[in-house]
Task: structure prediction
Amino acid sequence: MSDYSHDRRDFLKFALAASSVSLAPSLGWAFGSEKERTTWYRNAKFGMFIHWGPYSLASVEASWPIMRPTSGGITEAEYRALPMRFNPTKFDPDAFVDLARAAGQQYMVFTTKHHDGFCMFDTSFTDYKITNTPYGKDIVKQLAGACMERSMPLGFYYSPPDMHHPAFRDTTKLAKENWNGEPARPEWPLYLDYMQLQLTELLTGYGAVALIWFDGLNHQEKYGGVRFLDLIRKFQPATLVNDRLGLPGDYQTPEQFIPSAIPTKDVRFNAVDTSVQQKLKTTIPRSEDFQLWETCMTINNTWAYNMHDHEYKSAQMLIRSLVEVASRGGNFLLNVGPQPDGVIQPEFQDRLRAIGEWLAVNGDSIYGTTYGPVQGVPSIRVTAKKDKIFIHVFEWPSAPLEINALEAKVLSAYLLANGRVLKIRQSEGKLQVDLPAQGPDPNVSVIALRI
Result:
């Protein structure tokens, strides 16, 4: 373990101390009902994901180039040497938070440690960390401080897989040979203790943690997830946990796609696997059957900064994706990969600010809403809250808008953008709304119905 800041004896001492903590799971889980703990998250709808580390220097994806290397790509030795050059002198945590606010994002999730094992915080349990780079400062600490000052909820992405830790896998081999970890080795319990020590650091040294976003990859049962849920509940009972530690967690996380129907608790997602959509029902579920969920998505094709990836989704596509997600009751976690100097590239900033401009006008139809009572109509998406139903019109019709199967009695209708009152007719479950010749917004126009 020469790569670590403690020798084997010290590490065992710390691990023994961590494993002896009394966690009292029944008390941890007793903190409020599920609905109470998740209310802020259900209302937030839109968050910023941040994938950042030394890999940004090479314009390669986080971790995967050493796990699944390609011919002619960066070697594992080259990848592991990147921290020696990592010096993001232009990093400004306030600018990150300001951009999220301008985008209308209500929470942020930052990669504290990705699968490569490099830590963006000043952990005491490895030398493979941000404070041992030329930059030398704790990135997570700075961002946590900025978020706290601006009342921005901050969550931590933490990767259970760790290509750098010799108890996770035999590091005398290349990562491509054993990147799933080796739980059968006698060293495996030491790695779980290491996870516990680092999570304890994050939960006790960085203020309120809105959520822990695990990314356990394959065979997640090997982590014994209950142990870590208990740890989280002990130190920060209000912290939410996602579904990638071998347990359901508080919410599920489809990756790079939007579910085709409203998720329910009897369906389990598995990251990028879209085949699960075959199990989704097209009916509108009871509130008690609804599964809280969040789609995470990139603005281009990569999570990390890549100077060669110019396939950016348009602002309109991203706005419509946000609407699509909200119409099925989910959250939208949109990713940015900062440049190696610490600045978020202008193409990302422009799109985020465009989303924020749309939300400044139409945010009432997104924040605090849930899935709408009308689903499956191609030209519209519907959200709802309290005494309002919001009709998001993707393709503005030339004739009156007709909505079938709307059981609620509609009292009035108006354009959310400008308050213009619209004439309506309703009978036998069919609503007709007279519209002006053009919609107020080329991205998505919103009609508010009072019920």
